[in-house]
Amino acid sequence: MATSTETPSETDTGAKRRFRPYQIALVIGGGFAAITAASYVAEQLWAEHWAETYAEEQPISRLMFNNIPGWLRLSFYVLVVGAILYGAFNFSNRVRNWERGGPDDRRTKPKNVKKRLENMRSGLYMQTLLRDPAAGVMHSFIYFSFLVLLAITTIGEINLQLPVALKFLHGDVYRAYAFIADLAGVFFVVGLIWAVVRRYVQKPYRIRIKTKADHAIGLGVLLAIGVTGFIAEGFRIALEGMPEGDNLAFIGYPLAHALKGMGGLEWWHRTWWIVHILSFIAFLVVLPTTMLRHMFTSPINMYLKDRDRPKGAMKAMPNLMETELETFGASVVEDFTWKQLLDTDACTMCGRCTSVCPASGTGKPLDPREIVLKTGEVMAATGDPQVSPPIALDGEITIGANSLFERITPEEVWACTSCKACDEICPVNIEILDKILDMRRYLTLMESNFPTELGSAYQGMENQGNPWAMPQSDRAKWADKVDGIKILEGGDPIEAEYLYWVGCAGSFDDKNQKVTQAVAKLLQRAEVSFAILGPSEQCTGDPARRSGNEYIFQMLAMQNIETLDSMGVKKIIAQCPHCFNTISNEYPQLGGHYEVIHHTELLERLIDEGSIDMSGTNFAERIVYHDSCYLGRHNDIYMAPRNIIASIGGVEVVEAPRNGTDGMCCGAGGARMWMEEHTGKQINVERSQELLATGATRIATACPFCYVMIDDGVKGEGVDEDAVKVGDIALHLLEALEEAETPVGLPLSAVTNPV
Q1: From CA 738, how far away is CA 750, in angstroms rounded?
Q2: 172-184, pLDDT tens digit by residue?
Q3: Structural domain of residue 651, as residue ranges?
Q4: What is the Cβ-side half-sphere exposure of residue 607, based on CA atoms within 13 angstroms?
Q5: What Rg, from alpha-carbon coordinates, does the chain have?
């Protein structure tokens, strides 16, 4: 495979497997079919006799299959067994398509089993779905009620097979059984009616644009199961003479009262029982070929969320200088991993990824949901055997070759800011960003098909060691305004506790040079021992990697690792979240292992320890914090920046509508910092307007790219700097401290810039 990172251990493991995954699917399906068939055999041999004896001894109980003749019971079991086998066969074909993908180590191991179970529980409890209360509650009604009804049916079947002495569905137990069955049924039907209203009456945009026949079939079949179940129950209770044991069936019992005067109760009960059973069989038949399959695939995907690399790391690639691979990245289905292909069948088409995508929300061609569905369409159309696509294809769409770019355009791929909002919001843990970045690798490395603006950034990184194309000799010029900065010469052993990794923006950008100086002053205040590399520091390679240029990334990364290791660097302070993420999460792929801390994490610790004294601060400002995507969603650091702000006396902290895990990107991630926005509204303008709407007098950032983008956006709105100040948290913190130290009546400039 083009992007294979298969290791010998993975290969050996695969070779030792007795069964392939699709065969396991067949075995599981065959097992359920065998159990169902065995239930019929057991009923014929002994269960029916035991049931009749049981009914005589226990008046408050239920005689299963009452009024259902033997030939009809046989037909029921034969049809159910056939439907299960049919579904297993179709599902196994889907699994065979997943197997077209490359290796991806998602094995359950002692160290990850707890995490996997937590991920699955989080998904099954619909914690992500519940961020949208209406949709979350609706799905909970349907999903959990379905599970309860399935358990109710199974318990009834088990009770039927047990000897009289072991049967338990009688008396108060049966009363509770009947009550719970009706309660679950009510929630089930209400949830389904709610879903129908949302999809076909209210029509939220993210749902409306993807409503197909799949959805009508799924909802119709499930609703038929629920409604016919109640009707069949009502006729059964009426036929049995309104038995006392069923009076807690608060739907079936009143319904039976209304039906008991009808003639031909035996015929009516039998008819509705048949309709109910046919609805269930229809469900089994359509399950693997419609969107309903996510009932199986989504829990699997939730369980497999944990992977063998950090959350913020891209997939590793072999050394491009040494590899024998002839193609890189993803252009055909087989270039994705099997897990990435499973994603396409786990998708529920809910559109949450699209609703939070900053590119999609500002009119760009990218729709994260479409990336998943289009991949699934190509996989389904080119599979052997062919399977139904994740959602019914429009008739005019044709797929002529096994190429992802049959359906996905380069414009979609390049619009992504790599903010990870789509991955974070997905209720079934689909990994969308990986797919986009893998396709970028192909476009860049194999076709040189990338936005022209990236060319100068690539040239700068390759020739000058930074995307700004600035001379390396200027990297430490910011230090001229801060006394006592230790600049390491190439190869010198580090004696300080920390290496301060300034980053390209902090070294060359005018705005961010002030951030660098502020961070250095704060570290000096706290008596933190640190040094910088100066000209020996190069770009980490993040812009190259996120734009698909693995060659430049590896070149820069290996040079940096060699420099750091030669100096004996162990601890690193990173000012830029992109540098932080790359050194912490991706350099280990190339042998670079360091303890990396973002400057906001360190400042928070220094404040907590008292090394930075906040007791005298009284900063009468209203501050809103803008979450960095690479600090937040990529590395789960949300509270450190907020805690720093909250530690400043007199500050009023406010939040933008979109914050934390739901925060909106500034538009610069994924190498978009070096690309122009030619379509739709600028993302930084959208975000800046949102931050300004909070009424904040200061906007705090924790990323140099965010600082640039938000500052430009605020100024573009015509807001004067004196009205709203934008800056890194370090700038706000230092200003608050220096203001507290300024004698009354003396201007702050006299302290910060003494003559």
Answers
A1: 10
A2: 999 999 999 999 9
A3: 614-752
A4: 25
A5: 31
